[in-house]
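Suppose a classmate hands you a notebook page containing two proteins, each written out with its sequence and a corresponding row of structure tokens. How would you begin to make sense of it? This section walks through that situation. The first entry is reproduced here exactly as it would appear on such a page.
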Amino acid sequence: MNSLTLGFIYVCGLSWLLCEVCVSASNGNWTPLWLFLIFFTLMFIIMGCWPMSHKAINVAGPIFTAIMGVWILMYGFGSFGATVLGGMIRVLGGAALLVFGFIGYTVGSTEKTH
């Protein structure tokens, strides 16, 4: 994660999830936004502030990516009632984040990163 292996995907997932929770907050449901802020803070405390080895960072990054993917998948399945296209895009995006999370284990575990 420190070497930005698949870093663009992590940033895209965080940005997408932030957009989703902000839309929920604008509709009056503030709980997802507060959960996102807790998740975001926890993620950066673990991966950015604690002195961890590169191997531990490469394990934590894909875990957080998979959590983001599951969260976007939940938004996707919940939005099929409003629009099918929006639900499909969210489901595909969430599934892609899950796949990239699992790919992160195969790529990040064998390389030495700096």
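The notebook's second entry, a different protein, reads as follows.
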Amino acid sequence: MASAFKAAYSVAGAGLMLVGFGFILAGIASLFPSFGMTLLGLVLDIVGLVLFFIEWSRFKSEERRLSAYGVGLYILAAIVSFFTGAFLLTINFTTHSLFHSASGPAGAVLQAVGYAFFGILLYLAFLLFPYGFARKEEKTMLLVGFIGGLIVSLILNPIAIGGGLYNITNISPLEGLVTDIVSLIFGVSYIVIGNNVRIRG
């Protein structure tokens, strides 16, 4: 009953829908590589976020808080990704320069741990950003996407890194496929939530 009394945010809802379409285009572009589609998805995400924050002042406290957590976690994930990449470059440069050999297991462990943290933060950001606006069914969809993201970050990614290091197995295609499916799940979730936010009364 409480959800029936929530205000409609027509502009913010449209913004969430655009972000959702951006997710879907990202997943499709990964399955069928296309620079144009990737660029269009990025543009939709940016425009969608701008529209979303236009109505920020009208949001309820929980909606603001969870959206802010989502943005904060996304920024933190970007920082983790940057420093993980920087550390990997430093290790590879140092080992190649001093010992003329690759960093090997040390670099692989750092990569796996760094990108695991990155993935957890990133998918948690995707979960929380629209969570305050979601109904029960929509929250379930978001949680399914989040769990899929955890599987990618904590299981498939480390296996892919270890397998690539020791030439045991190549699980990268499976990791990419699951990542694309997760993007599609989040995309559909954002579109449904955005549409309901846009028209609810």
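A careful reader of the second entry would note: DSSP finds six helices and no strands in the chain.
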